[in-house]
Write a structure and sequence with these properties.
The protein is globular. A hairpin with a 2-residue loop joins strand 2 and strand 3. Strands 1, 2, 3, 4, 5, 6, 7 and 8 form an eight-stranded mixed β-sheet that branches. The chain has a single domain, classed as Aminopeptidase, CATH 3.40.630. The mean pLDDT is 97. Helix content is 23%, strand content 36%. It is an alpha+beta fold and 141 residues long. The longest helix has 15 residues. Bound molecules: coenzyme A (COA).
């Protein structure tokens, strides 16, 4: 089941999956009070998270939303939970009149986003401390 969650609920999975177990307070995004956060639950266990907030990607113009903090618990990879979150968000954003969704995609996760029809919109670049990324986007209107 996919539902909206509080920013604070994302922090344990952000830390464990994306930030090498950094203290939770260091896993807060400056934008966490904007937009919305989604969680996928198996029974009562939160197994996948993603955060969506308004931010344009300069080359794509106005009406953009950005995805950050996409993470699925390793025991639940490949079971469709990440896909469920993105599809839920795209349906919601389409109803809200948002034009496109974009993200800094880790190069290791490129295949996941490509399966969801995201397109690469930048050259590869390094995010310090994390590694190689591409910017990717999907048109939703
Ligand atoms: C990337 C990630 C969020 C995907 O979540 P998930 O819940 O496992 O994704 P899904 O089960 O919905 O996968 C959908 C499809 O993408 C594929 N896929 C998932 N992760 C992939 C990856 N890293 N590379 C290539 N393909 C991938 C799945 O095999 C599946 O393919 P299928 O439809 O043929 O079965 C998850 O692997 C993860 O948390 N990785 C570590 C953190 C990370 O890289 N996050 C993204 C930061 S930009």
């Amino acid at each position: 089941m996919v539902k909206q969650i509080l920013a604070g609920e994302t922090l344990p999975l952000r830390s464990a999956v994306l930030r090498n177990n950094l203290p939770l307070e260091e896993c807060v995004f400056e934008t966490d009070s904007q937009g919305f956060h989604l969680g996928a639950f198996v029974d009562d266990k939160l197994v996948s998270i993603a955060t969506f907030f308004p931010e344009d990607y300069s080359e794509l113009g106005h009406g953009g939303y950005r995805l950050r903090g996409m993470a699925t618990h390793p025991n639940y990879h490949g079971k469709g939970y990440g896909t469920q979150l993105i599809q839920f968000a795209i349906n919601h954003l389409r109803n809200e009149g948002i034009s496109y969704l974009w993200c800094n995609a880790r190069s290791t996760a490129l295949g996941f986003y490509k399966k969801l029809n995201f397109m690469v919109v930048s050259d590869e670049f390094i995010v310090p401390g994390i590694g190689p990324h591409f910017n990717m986007s999907i048109q939703i209107q």
